[in-house]
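Pasting as-is:
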Amino acid sequence: MIVRAGPTEQRCNGRGDENVDSQRFDFVIIGGGAAGEGAAHLARERGASVAVVEKDLVGGACPFWACMPSKALLHAAAVHHAGGDYPWPKASAFRDYMIVREGIDYPDDHGHVTSLEQAGATVIRGQAKLAGRGRVDVTGDGVDRTLTGRDVIVAVGSHTRIPDIEGLDEIESWTNREGTATRDLPLSLVILGGGPTGVELAQVYARYGVPTTIVDSNDRLLSRDHPRSSEAVAKGLEKDGVRVLTGVRGKRVRARGGDDGSHVIELSDGSAVQGHEVLVAVGRAFPLAELGLESAGVELDGKSRVRPDEHLRIAEHVYLVGDPAGPEMHTHLAHYQGEMAVRIALGEDVKPDQRAIPRAVYTDPETGSVGLRLDEALEQGFDAFEETADIGTSAKGYVLEAGGHVTIVVDRREKILLGAFIAGPGASEAIHEAVLAVKLRVPLAVLADTIHAFPTTARVMGGLFAQVVKQLG
């Protein structure tokens, strides 16, 4: 049953128990994205009553505006780029299928709602705001409702951060929503930001013939990844026709001041670029200030943020999970944290282990990474070094005519893996051996003694493990 903010109702909690006042729950979860869904489903499995409050799409950004549509478009663009039968109208239709938007203007989230309902959760449409410890006011459709929960889980996700660039507010700029949802190819595109969103969408549109420029204020794309991965992705994009500008930022936008009505973006180095559409992908912001957290004793910092403790708490019986919780922003991390908050709230003696968070970017070439770069490891006091293998000269590289690298960061003293970075075929899959190795502190000798299938990117990494073991003696 999906309900909107309104009068008190009675409902069964889905376990055959007696009806309970629908205003009272074990868990009130604010936000129905990956973190909220993960929390709700696990709580129901454990027999707890759950209300999920969502003001927009249940399921969050990932299935509708981010992960799923972008990967669908990347797949279509790859087939098209290789000469296959995947023109833009077909790609757009496939994307609409993926986000449940066939023949309608806005995605349909009924699948996510039904899944929660079948699990026994109550889904409430509306804007939630804390009104004291354990109290959540919900407003929607002009009516108000107050929920009470033994525990409150804040899982509100994030949205595109709009930079302070003169004139940007005078155009209808794109965010990831428009970038993944447009049904019409832009005449030209400027992307502000060279992180995962920027590089993935740049490749999609460039491979469909759209003149595309990336502007990134960092000295390289994917600035948090390994420099070799950044270089590999930049070369791949440039090969597809993307113009890559790094070390510069947008300073001013002149609406429709360019050729054929395109917008002109003046850059910090005195140059300028033009695009009929401007996609903003410079970072994310978190809607915490509007939630009334202060009523539960939570103080936000000057950036309207708060960091949870090692048990994801921001106040007694109040948990923060997903993008606003950090330390990184990924769907898989959000889901993990949502479940972890429920386990902690229900009394398990656990805390999240976030040392081995997998990261992946699905461009061609793909990238995958986990753990610390060498500079990060040295800054943290490790006796660390790195070794690199060239995928292009490996069997995997030869048979696929592909390049790239595998780089590992090693703790010399403990003889364990601190980090791994891959750019090349199958990177997003191969990285998971390293994820497990970092999490479990697997001795390098064990990794070197592990048999890796031939010819694979994982085998290239296995060769590095063996090489390092010989070096360490």
